[in-house]
Known about the structure:
single chain, 245 residues, alpha/beta, Rossmann fold, 8 helices, 46% helix, 15% strand, globular
Amino acid sequence: MSDFAVYPSLKARRVLVTGGASGIGAETVRAFAAQGADIAFLDRDPDASETVAAETGARFQLCDLRDIPAMQAAIKALGPFDVLINNAARDDRHDWQDVTPEYWDERMNTNLRHMFFVIQSVAPGMIEAGGGSIVNVGSNSWWEAKGGFPAYATAKSAVHGLTRTMARDLGRHRIRVNTIVPGWIMTERQKDLWATPEGLEAQKQDQCLPDLIEPVYVARMALFLASDDAAMCTASNYMVEAGSI
């Protein structure tokens, strides 16, 4: 493991991560905890949440982010916050021919809708504090024209529009809004479900860099964007995809 940077401005900073019990979210919780941040997360998996909380000292609330009133109540119980890492999503595969209106709506609720309403819930506290940082987690899947999950790719492409418009609306309050754009990140979910030897080799060929991408590198980008080092960074995309677009 590399010797990574320490960001003094993150010490005691109040941070919320959505989907913080596994994958990129859990790695992000660990990264902020190591910086001495006051870290909290939302997730719907009780066992995984307990594990991450015990490991990091993070606070958490169980909730399904598709249930907007439940999410709002959870944030009220945990907040206010200086930093939001809007991470939660599920890249379930689906054939375009099989998608129903109900499934489409459920995918939007899972991968997009909650991101706006989480911002809406945390922004007043950031305004009162005099500023903040919001980091939306997108995906390079649509940049690369990947197939096999049209509803997911559509939702993730919309994250960029959300970032840009909210950066304008919240910028006057010194709240920065950016997007992290991960490539294929080797979470346990990806390894269990889709990381075949053939698929991994093809991914390496698509990337400029030869190494597969571990979740820690997305978490490190989140730390930078949350820190005072990124004080003049907003409305932008920050790629963590090993040059694969």
